[in-house]
Amino acid sequence: MDFFYKFYERIRKYFLNDQCYFFLPLIKQYDTSLTLSSIVQNSTKFYKFKNLCDRVWFFDNKKNHWVNLANLFFKNKNVIEISSRDFFKYQKITNLLLVSLDNSVRNKYSKKIPNSFIKKIDFSPHTMRGKHSFIKNNISSGYMGEYPLKMTKVSSGNVFSYVNMFHSQPLKSKSSIVFINFSENQNMEGKLLLVDLDENRVIFSKKTKSNQACTISLENKIFFGKKIALYSLGHIGIPIYINEYGVNKKQSLSVEHSHPPSEYFFSDIYKHQAILKKNWLNKYEKIF
Amino acid sequence: MKKFFNQIAKSLIFHKYRALSDKINLQNVSSCSDLFFYRNDNFSTTYIQENTKSLYSSNTSSFSITIVFFNKGGKELFRVKHKLHSFDFTINFDMYSKKLDKYGSFLIFTSEKLNFIPHFRGYVGYKRKLDEHYSFVHGNFGALYVSEDGGFQSVLNFINNKTFNYSPQLEFKQTQTYIISNPFLFDINVTFSLYANNNLNLIETKTIQPFATTFFVSQDKLLNGDVTAVFSSHIPALRPIIFDEYKSHFDVLHS
Fold first, then answer.
1. Which residue of B43, B133, B135, B223 is the best one to mutate when testing the A interface, meaning the one whose CB has the most A CBs within 10 A?
2. In terms of residue numbers, what domain contains A126?
């Protein structure tokens, strides 16, 4: 059985490439946490891994390699929650930690993006997920997600995301976008832009770097009644939309990611995704 | 060449698990919809519909959508039509609150055939009725389409008789409600268990009729701490929506 599973693992890694990572932003605006489980998410048999550990890494820009900061073993636990507060002192060096699952502690440093164990025991459809939460004043909101290995292999690229999740939120709320990027191409620089599509103008622009989070925080009234889109030029990544509302004792947070453009299409996904991005880049490239 | 081998490997590996990898013949399909979930109890629901066709072309275009509402038992309640003129369209379900059940499911179909974009994506926002702030999920339960005879058909061709265990990757808390709507045209049996102290503790088994919506909760105070929920059914990856409610705030996420 072990032989067949290892054989299957090799085939799957080659063909399907479904390894993934998780992340823990170290940003000023919010505390963050990441919850991972040792139980297989979807399988025909209920199964819990006993020798798993969460490996926390950051990318050292100066030395050009990944550094392992901590290894948290599940032992007999079902669930481990990692908090950004435990890594607060690293905020001066980085604003984004990468978390990989592994079944042993192999190396302290890695030239390439670290390996990630795939928590799978059979062929059931499965994407590993973790709960990524953002916290402020003890109020937390999160979403289940991951950062696919496939995305780290794209050396450069662009993202277009239409910003519509803030439209229904109160005028007095505050909206933030946290853009997460991990890349094997380690020294890339790019730009994150918010564009008013009606007025043809850039309303916010910020530089991005490989393996770093980029945060934009704005009053929600900026988005109200406007057609606004987020562009990332140079880096692909995951934009996370956060809306924060607080009046007197009523406080709340909403966190969600947008649909990846690949989910818009049922066939020729990469072709149509490229057309979508090209249409939007061509239309506004003069103002970038 | 790699693409060719990739497809062969996928079809070999996944052929027993086709329920999630099968795609419908799009030539015969008008449009697809996720089965979404609304609340009309102490919560309000809003829905953001993206005009994916416009987003694809980067030019606004107009078309109409039909929303089909179901009650919690899966019975169709009513249909409404709306016109879209922009890249997105927000519909607050408070205007239908008298006609809606306390909670239930809904489908959204578009008016035109869109070939490679049969799925107009959307986000559902929930807020407590007295609050102003929504919490959003992009949640869905499978997908359905309208067949040529006008009935609903499931995109997922269910062919499996294996039991799958789906375990949301977070700690179970008594403040959480797990919600499942049935996007299939047949009843599904779902067993809800809690894994604690190396034991799988059966909480309840429920039969969910097509389009019906069911809540799963546990108030067992002994099952607290390092506990994980497990949902067993014949559906691969039956992902519940989770409401985590506190006095001062709540959160909602798609597991």
1. B133
2. 2-149
